Amino acid sequence: MSEAVLDFDEVMANFDPVLGLEVHVELNTASKMFCGCATTFGGEANSQTCPVCLGLPGALPVVNASAVESAIRIGLALNCSIAEHCRFARKNYFYPDQPKNYQISQYDEPIAFDGFAEVEVDGEVFRIEIERAHMEEDTGKSLHIGGATGRIHGASHSLLDYNRAGVPLIEIVTKPIVGAGEKAPQVARAYVAMLRDLLRALGVSDVRMEQGSLRCDANVSLMPKGTTSFGTRTETKNVNSLRSVERAIRYEMTRQAAVLTSGGTVDLQTRHWHEDTGITTAGRNKEEAEDYRYFPEPDLVPVAPSREWVDQLRTTLPEPPAERRKRLQSDWGFSDAEMRDVVSVGAVELIEQTVAEGCTAQAARKWWMGELVRRANEQQIELAEVGMSPAQVAQLQGLVDAKVVNDKLARQVIDGVLAGEGEPQQVVEARGLAVVSDDGALTAAVDEAIAANPDVADKIRGGKVQAAGALIGQVMKAMRGQADAARVREIILERLG
User: Is 444 in the same domain as 392?
Assistant: First the structure.
């Protein structure tokens, strides 16, 4: 059942939002954080477990060196200081998918701290302060059976899969984000998108949000205009798409504002995001740090990365996302407005990969920002999930360039590719979509159009060449769109002198 909400403009007239974003990144190491079990996604339930990640008595953890390396590189890429000495802690809490009843994490001694990142929204640059990036292990997964929603409410029973338990995680925590105003939801989306691009460039994670390897916990509170004290926050857990990050924060702002303006108080709690209805619902009361009874992990020695190692890892960092976007914009010849649009829908990587497949930047932009983004919006999914790969878009444009299909027919090719009918060339052949290049067939169609429209033909003979458009339309209709409009025009003018 949805709660009362306030109009967004009314929210902004009376309150200032404060955000705090906690992004969890599953690393793509071959083995788990503290044991040698595989981390492959989608394995048979509980097939990738051992006494260590199941928390059995007497099993001792060992730190994954590759995970530490990835954590340092992430910290450096976010302009963080890297600790000379840090340690793990036990975070104590009971949850069915946490087999040890505690999580090995970092608390007051993270490996990376005091960093920052910058994102741009509508031409305005926002600086996001990073409090810390710390190492920890992921939990298992609960599967609730028998209910209508897949959640525990209404389920007849639950199953536990511990394959994910112990997978290396980096949690990146921002300091409070203030001053974003009405752009707060967009700033949050842009920040998570920036992290996704950066982590992919670092090669430390596949950052597939739909599989949970990148997910965001969004903390939101409101301050009445003219005040400086933060309000009570809520934490919307495990938001797993860029679009949902923006929508969840926007909804929470309108919900909290309705509570406050009616004289109520916001509860400190976790919330669940519902993609289908676009609302959040209450989870559990939110714990504070002391509730977790943190203490140093007795089975692990401290981590002390040498300065030489840190300096060597610094040399492996990729081009910063902002600089990369400026370079690509220059290489592609996009205007500032065009590049902003590309960034806002998450098309930078897609266009870059399409260009790498041999397509021009403008053609790649035409398809991703036109037909494909329209379909993504209709389905309310991310552009990258629309179902067409950069290689297929490049192949499609190759068919257009070779005059095998025109733009109108190319849209039908997209239909076929998205329907699983094969690669673009296979769809063209199977559906018979190739442009008719036989001059005999085109001439016959032109003659029919001339005979059916003598008044138009007379205008063209009289010098009104622009009237040829009407005949071209008739021919294209007769040929079911499978004609080269430019060649049809040439034939019309030839036939009419």
Answer: no
